[in-house]
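Notes from the 1:1 (GR / supervisor)

We went over the backlog. Supervisor wanted to see one worked example end to end before approving the batch request, so GR pasted a single chain during the call. The sequence is below; no edits were made to it. Supervisor asked that the structure be written out right there so they could see what the output format looks like.
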Amino acid sequence: MTEHEARRSAERDQSHEGRDQSHEGPREERNERASKENGAQVSTGIDTAGVPDAAIPELVIISGMSGAGRSTAAKCLEDLGWFVVDNLPPALIPTMVELGARSQGNVARIAVVVDVRGRRFFDNLRESLAGLEAKNVTRRIVFLESSDEALVRRFESVRRPHPLQGDGRIVDGIAAERELLRELRGDADLVIDTSSLNVHELRAKMDAQFAGEEEPELRATVMSFGFKYGLPVDADLVADMRFLPNPHWVPELRPYTGLNDEVAAYVFNQPGAKEFLDRYAELLRLISAGYRREGKRYVTIAIGCTGGKHRSVATSEKLAARLAAEGVETVVVHRDMGRE
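Structure output shown during the call:
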């Protein structure tokens, strides 16, 4: 090797050594950050000093069962102008809110999808939500629910395993996930059962809840159903109208539904029917006031009878009219009407 070549080689070695040393610090910092994120050292506080309250973004947490439609719900909010983050570790939610608050109004609404793919972070969710509440951040939880049968069918159709099934069956993963999400479902502001919904129907439900410019104080869904088809899994309150005589056994009324005036008149001419409606509406006024105080903006009231055709339908219509007259934005759904 000539003297010139030796000098060039030494310069290259020195340059490589310098570059290695320059990367050493950042690499250590990255490792330290990663270890903090994997542990309990991640801060859940929100530093919004100097940021006006009006600049703190609105937050929606989207969670629920795998296969129940979380991605569809997230895409719907994204189309409505929300800033959507998928599979964000719960410990980083306050940081995301802080960044949104400092964006000078550019990020006014944030939606975060939280699911069992990030299960090692999932234990931090309750702590993060408590920190958000202490900072007066407006947050809502949307929980996507679905029946075991529907979830199994969806996983089998795409030929993918459930994220929690391990070496077991799909139903084992679903059961484990339900147990993991039990408390979060109980804290949810809005539960949507997607068992019988297609993609377009789920988007319509999300649009109905989030597309409006002005948020009402309380939104109610009054749902009639038939007990013989099972309880609605997304019901907050359930009333049973089977204490009234069944119009099904009146031949001239049997072909009609509770939307028919003669059927409705028959139902509410029975002893106890009008009294029930009056007292249940009064009870709902009390419950609605409590929901508002607790920040719950959505309630599903299920009214059931045997087949979901006569008594529950008539009562749902009357009750929804009462709620609407009192300023509650109300939607009526007759889940099982026409199934017989």
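Supervisor's comment: The mean pLDDT is 81.
Batch request approved.
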